[in-house]
């Protein structure tokens, strides 16, 4: 990419030009970092299954490798969060995580033997758990507590753009070059991600992990014990909400993809791709607005709106059989994904930001999400096999409704007084 010419007029009004102009500022560095990290993470998605299948791996062996990554991620949530809290420089944690991604991608590319693949999955699973909290901590340091919602919305926008670009680039590499080239490209994309960290290199520990205490009482609060933080009723309620949400959400698209395959035949792959891309477009469009709404209207209101999209999707999937309309239903997934992605770190910051254990608490919420995702796919598959797709969709809609009701009836407003007014 070449820089646009100098001069105010040359900066133009496009997002790309503004992004380039701000690349040396901490805010611009975060934009680029989120974009390239999303590029990288795309390489560790469905392309793994495609690559290992072409290398002669059995479905059982592929499933074990993927499960190993999932188990590592779940087991790493709390220790990774504690590590980020303890780190004096969050950008160094992010750089370390990205370098581990480089090693993981190269292990996939060098030789798809079990030892390398399993090691790559373990390394990627742990580093994913350190990179996410590090980015949130740097976002908090750059934007401040009051503007964190808007900053997280901006993060989500650039992550969504990065996902789309990454999927297109890696799909083209896999089609025109080889499946192995996907992981070489993934390793190469870690280089611009590291460069994006340069404007963030000054971010240290205290400001990034928690807002500065305004008085002695707040300083005492920041030294709360771990047990007291994790036992906070609001954090436990939020963990239950996100676990229920993930339990209902994780199997919806796979079930819809299976149903589309039965109905659409040869067009299924194209329709499934549209089901994946459309929510990303919606996330990119609405994330900044959702971040601002969380700051002005309150967290609880945004959570209710986002969570309510889930039971609506489940019911529509159960009732609608037209493949084109099934794709359009994914608009609601984009709204839910944007709300969920922004609210998880934002609400956690509200609850635990001044405790000194923000990233540990974020890891606890991540563990709850992982538990919901792990249980949901098996449960939804069993319901679908025994009672049919429609029953499975309705059961997931019921779980989504339960999550929405729990937010509505049980979850308190965690934002400032101004936000909730």
Account of the protein in words:
The structure is a single chain. By secondary structure, the chain is mainly α. It folds into 2 domains: 22-208, Growth Hormone, Chain: A (Up-down Bundle); 227-413, Growth Hormone, Chain: A (Up-down Bundle). The protein is built from 20 helices and no strands. It has helices spanning 8-11, 15-21, 26-43, 47-54, 59-86, 90-110, 114-143, 148-176, 179-196, 205-209, 216-221, 226-230, 233-249, 252-264, 268-296, 299-319, 323-352, 358-387, 389-410, 417-420. The longest helix is centred in the first third of the chain and has 30 residues, at 114-143. The termini are far apart. 51% of the residues are buried. The model is unreliable at 1-13, 205-216, 218-223 and 417-421 (pLDDT under 50).
Q: Determine the number of helices (DSSP H or I, runs of at least 4 residues).
A: 20
User: How many angstroms separate the termini?
Assistant: 45 Å
Q: Let me know the number of strands.
A: 0
Q: Which structural class matches the secondary elements?
A: mainly alpha
Helix content: over 70%
Poorly predicted regions are 1-13, 205-216, 218-223, 417-421
**Mind telling me the CATH superfamily name of the largest domain?**
MFS general substrate transporter like domains
Rounded mean pLDDT is 82
- Round the Cα radius of gyration to an integer and report it: 21 Å
